[in-house]
Amino acid sequence: MAKNYRHVGKYILLERLGAGGSGEVYLSYAQMGPKLYQFFAIKLLIAEQTSNPKALKMLQREASLANVLKHNSIVSLYECGQEDGSFFVAMDYVNGLPLSRLMHHHMTRKPILRIEYALYIARAVAAGLEYARTCKDPETGKELSIAHRDISPQNIMVNFEGEVKIIDFGLARSSGLGDKTQSDQVMGKLKYISPEHAGGVSVDHRTDIFSLGVVLWEMLAGRRFYSDMDDAQVIAWLNDPQYKSLRKIVPAVTPELDEIVKKAVAGDIEQRYQTAGALHDALNRYLNKNYPDFSPSEFRQVFRDTFIQDMKDREKMLSEFLIDLEGNQKKHEKTFDEYADMVDRIGVVAETVQNPKANDEKAVERFRAARTAITERKKRVRGMWRHYELKQTISYAWKFMVAFLVLTLIWSKVTNQTYKQFWHSSWSAVRRVAGLNPETRDLASLKAEVDGAKYKYPEKPFTVQIRTRPTGARIYQNGKLLNLKTPALVRVSDAESAKITLESKGFAAKSVLIKPFEEDLFFDFHSSK
């Protein structure tokens, strides 16, 4: 049974995917054109925050920033709007899992995430961050220098095609637009923020490099960067950062890779990579040099195999939503048809009124126009093959034919006839019932034809099964001894005669002329016949 879903603008909200302090994210669906449908992620400001100007400003800021970010590693934004007092942002739906799920899987199960896969993910995120830093305002052409400020495994998505996407620019700031972070305001997740961010000072894009470095360290190490630390100890470490060498945890990590990660998580902002592009280039060189055979399709296949059940569950969920939505659409179409029929009936009644007054004439004209518009829409949208009566006729016709064929097949088997014989006898019976004498032949001519008939052997060989009692009789075909003993299958080739002779020890030999396409012969040597 079709469900009733909430609508926000042209979007149908299907299921809540997550919630934060100021907004909720829903899986949604929209029709983009004729037979063109698409799933979206809708970020909706919760009711308690609709009157909060700060929360509204953050949502609008996210929309304005995401609107200019068009990159393969950044989730795309489609629309920002308001509907019945609800503010929303429509984004591309990423059919996959957060990086945190992949990391948790490898942290709780061995082996840990392979080095080339971790580098591939970090490289994609670095490319997206570099684009955010260098993208320009389409109106002024000024570089925006956007800082995400909340890079963490929860805000990095990996879809089932192996693509990596950065999501949630809700805390992002752009120095190109004059945004500034308040000196006493700390935002983002504590265990991924940079030392300068934890210190409450104004930050730029380099804070994202530190956060990405922590994520990369955790993917390579197979453990948390601040393992066994509470929040107070994390803050103490951020005040005096001391790098934890990866080589002590994972011996497979080379000194070169360890140095790349160390530079990414440098506590001193001046010692860190100055741009995400520089970190991307370092990761790219190392990946190409040490893993030349790696390809994204390899990671895609491994990721899909690891989470095959999640992928199947997601596909099942989306297909069920589509079935529900199709049911809602059919219900709407039915309502439209009922309304159209009502307009037709009222229009006919109005037209048949004798001596209508002036207002009645106007009503008739309105009904005529409405009926014409509805008829045109029916022709355009539904087409003649979707006409109700025609659909019903075709539906019953093919069901009747199938039932009739099945019944005739069963009856032919009951009467021990071939299908052709059954149809011939049925046709003769129909002719007799209709008073049309079926074709008859003189009995004498039929007998003469049978007596004068001669067997004609076929052009192609056929096989005959020969059985005897007792078994083990030798077989001769046209006087030639065959290397066979009964019971046996004898192949009869093209010949004018096929004489079979059987010899069994202690009994007189027996001979027979095989008829064309004889299937089974049985001889009883004990019988005198």
Features:
Phosphorylase Kinase, domain 1, 18 strands, six-stranded antiparallel β-sheet, 529 residues, alpha+beta, Transferase(Phosphotransferase), domain 1
Name the CATH superfamily assignment of the largest domain: Transferase(Phosphotransferase) domain 1
Question: How many β-strands, per DSSP?
Answer: 18
- Integer-rounded radius of gyration: 42 Å
Give the number of domains: 4
The backbone outline, from C-alpha atoms, is elongated
Q: What's the average pLDDT?
A: 78
Which class of secondary structure composition applies to the elements? alpha+beta
Helix content: 40-55%
Strand order of the largest sheet: 1-2-3-4-6-5
Q: Can you summarize the main beta sheet? A: 6 strands, antiparallel
What does this structure look like?
The protein is of the alpha+beta class. It folds into four domains: 6-92, Phosphorylase Kinase, domain 1 (2-Layer Sandwich), CATH 3.30.200; 96-306, Transferase(Phosphotransferase) domain 1 (Transferase(Phosphotransferase), domain 1, Orthogonal Bundle), CATH 1.10.510; 313-386, no CATH class; 462-524, Sandwich (Immunoglobulin-like), CATH 2.60.40. 43% of the residues lie in helices and 19% in strands. The chain contains 14 helices and 18 strands. The protein has helices at residues 53-66, 99-108, 115-134, 195-198, 206-221, 231-239, 255-264, 276-290, 296-306, 308-351, 358-382, 388-414, 419-433, 443-451; strands spanning 6-8, 11-19, 23-33, 36-45, 77-83, 86-92, 96-98, 146-147, 156-159, 164-166, 173-174, 462-469, 474-477, 480-485, 488-492, 499-503, 510-513, 520-524. A six-stranded antiparallel beta sheet has the order 1-2-3-4-6-5, with helices on one face. Strand 5 and strand 6 (86-92) form a beta hairpin. The longest helix has 44 residues, at 308-351. The protein is elongated, with a radius of gyration of 42 Å. The two termini are 76 Å apart.
